[in-house]
Amino acid sequence: MSEQNPHNTLVVDAFPVDDQKPLMPFGGEDTPGRLPGAPSFLGGALLLTLSRPRVLLFLLLPLLLLPLVVALPVFLGAEPLAPLQANPGGTEIDLPEIAPSWVFREWTRAMPETLPAAAASLPPLLLFMSLFNLVITGGWMGLAVSRRREHSLRSFLGHGGRAFFPFLRTWFLGLPLFAFVTWICWGTPAEWFFGLFLPEGDPALGASESTGRWLEILRQLIYLNALFKLELWLDLARASLTIGERRSALLAMVRSFWLFVRNPWGLYGLGLCGFGLELLWIAGAEAIRQVLDAPLWPMLLILPFGRIVMRGMRYAALARFAASRAV
């Protein structure tokens, strides 16, 4: 039996610590030739969002507090109008569902400065929420493709902060695209198209009322579909930036466009399921409230919370879908 050299030591590294492959979706198998579908990606993403309650509570705060900047001054300014909420017969007016127009006219006269100031504060708030949504998107996408099981709010904000400026460039690239789509559907091209079927392109001047109505419905459907695809394209570009920790928004737009061309039905189905679940949450919550004859204030918590969960699910699912296709 030969002697062994004690100085020759063989070390075998059995753990692929350098593997940067993202986590697979819920129920998905890393099987060649077969990739999970939209329900699998959405299921895994839903578990990811619900397992981070601190992040959800943090995101709920701005949705509850920022509307108070507009609503609270208007509400306090409407208190002097309380005596006007009674009809001559003595029954109370159901505000805001049923109210005569004179109540709103009196409201405007009683608040000549508050209402314009409240209206002027809406654009800055909407701009802030649009930019803050970039941080939210980066946070959920970063958590979705991270190899580590990150649950803390610090990790979420870290991913969102690193992604903000690359995502901001996609935000700027999207502005002219949204403007172009709006011009196509409501500008000169739409007027030319309507002019082929209606006198002067006006639905009110059509020989048949149904013709003008159906053309108007067709235009709205085309516009909504174009906005949906454009939003999906921008989110795919952000997912591409997150997966490879890239910086070029323009190249990310090109890569995401090619991914959309290669997987149109999968991406379209994923996006429609995500938006559909969000609409189902809103409609279902309102239906349950009406059946139970519950007050309106619980909806102020239920609807924003559901929207946060569903949007986080959609962003995380989209990032994992793009990672599985190696964008």
How would you describe this structure to a colleague?
The protein has helices at 38-50, 53-65, 68-77, 101-110, 114-145, 153-186, 188-195, 209-244, 249-262, 264-292, 299-324. The longest helix is centred in the last third of the chain and has 36 residues, at 209-244. It is an all-alpha fold and 327 residues long. The model is unreliable at 9-33 (pLDDT under 50). The chain is 69% helix and 0% strand.
Question: What is the count of helical runs?
Answer: 11
Structural class: mainly alpha
State the low-pLDDT regions, or none: 9-33
Let me know the number of strands: 0
Whole-number mean pLDDT: 81
Separation, N- and C-terminal Cα atoms: 56 Å
Q: Topology of this structure?
A:
Blueprint: H1 38-50, H2 53-65, H3 68-77, H4 101-110, H5 114-145, H6 153-186, H7 188-195, H8 209-244, H9 249-262, H10 264-292, H11 299-324
Q: Main attributes?
A:
single chain, 327 residues, mainly alpha, globular
Explain briefly what this protein structure is.
The chain is built from 11 helices and no strands. By secondary structure, the chain is mainly alpha-helical.
